[in-house]
Amino acid sequence: MKYMLIMRSTDEATAAFKAIPFGEVIEQMGAYNEALLNAGVMLAGDGLADSMTDNFVVEFTTETPIVTDGPYGETHELFSGFWIIETATKEEAIQWASRCPLVPGSKLEVRRVTDMSDFAEFADSDILKKEAAWRAEHEKA
Amino acid sequence: MTSVRRTLDALWRIEGARIVATLARVTGDVDLAEDLAQEAVADALIQWEASGIPDNPGAWLTAVAKRTAIDGWRRRARLDDRYRTMARDLETDAAGGEAITVDVWQPISDDVLRLVFIACHPVVGREAQVALTLRVVGGLSTEEIARMFLLPVATIQQRIVRAKKTLGAAHVPFDVPDPAEWPARLSGVLGVIYLIFTEGYAATSGEKWMRPDLANEALRLGRILSAQLPREPEVHGLLALMEFQASRFAARTTADGTPILLADQDRARWDRSQIARGTAALARVDGFGRGRGPYALQAAIAQCHALAPDVETTDWHRIVLLYEALGRIAPNPIVDLNRAVAVSMATGPASALLIVDRLASDGALRGSHLLPSIRGELLSRLGRIEEARAELSTAASLAANSRQRDVLLAKAAGL
What pTM was estimated for this model as a whole? Predict the structure, then answer.
């Protein structure tokens, strides 16, 4: 089973984070990532920039989508990084998620990543087939 | 199963190899190390049910196992000076909760790599190497291994016990191989992992044709090894091969478990992120600039399929070349048989039949369903229907997997 670990921040976490030397944060995260790699469970993972000049939000509230700078809003909604891990059981995913070296106030939201078996009844859908064909093309490029 | 048991199982998958490896380094005895670790797990089950799971359960298990070892040696130390020294070393090692916490966060140590090489040591037979690797490196229970291989628990148990006894009798040191032995020993380790994978990918016996759980264990072992030995091209080659092959899992059987052959698979169901990981692993191999070994070549062949939209547009000429290269560095009748299939796609069934007939006269694949099934396929494409039907029936009678047998019989009947 694949799980996505979604890192979310809070005001408390942001404050706690600033109190720690950045080198220490890098070192702890590095050790965590290395442990995931060494255990053969990590498939992907990256941090997300908080630079508002690079980020933007597309809102679909009107007929034409609106593009604005952001995301601002509540800090606890901010999604600051992710991992995708593959484990045999949910408990194993819980164990890994609990070991993440996050500062107090942080939150990890963990979601199972869907696979083909979740969409078995739509297996013959042309849209899904087209999407897969597009992905195949995309990877060749 | 209680929640403590489930947590313990999960913990064991994560920490088991490291705990056993740490204990094996100090005791110099894998068998004893595993017993000590299992004893700690049994203690944990009782204590955690009563008082809850500790904050750092991995450290708890290691500490308890070391404590048990020390107690055991204390008792024996009165009789033997050697044990006294060992007990003292262990005690220093286990001193202070702080040190243990740090220990848990050390990335997998060299000890685990030593454990991998011990489990795949040539004094132990291949089947036992597989069982021992899944048990001590993969952290699987004997029951789980037995279920995955559809064998009685007692059989697996016996293989593991015997393997450990053999290692003890041969005084195999708890260490990685010498440079002189390294290539052969590494190739042995890769062979064990790939054997686990292939048994999951195309089960040689039983009702089910695929056992993805077994294949996933092999992938995990492959990833562990590639993290441990990042400079070994063939480790990445094997990982790439397994990623490419596993990417087809969702497309390889119908909902009721009937196998679907490559040509008929719905390629939309292939796992694209897995193909991307295979591509990345193969790129790492090529990045060394030392050429492709047998696993990397097989991975490159699997990649040709993975990237082709369908059978017709597959680059069969390239696949033929890759098989030729593979056949030269790792001669094997199965490789020749696969090359024949690629030749039939690239230039037609007649030239492929020549290769297959040569293989048949060599007799190397006698008893395998593969040769007659491919020969039958080629004959049918050449319009020699009677001969084709006979070959496919022979193939069906030789297939050990019932799903495979059904496919061959259906094919023979459909001619």
Answer: 0.81
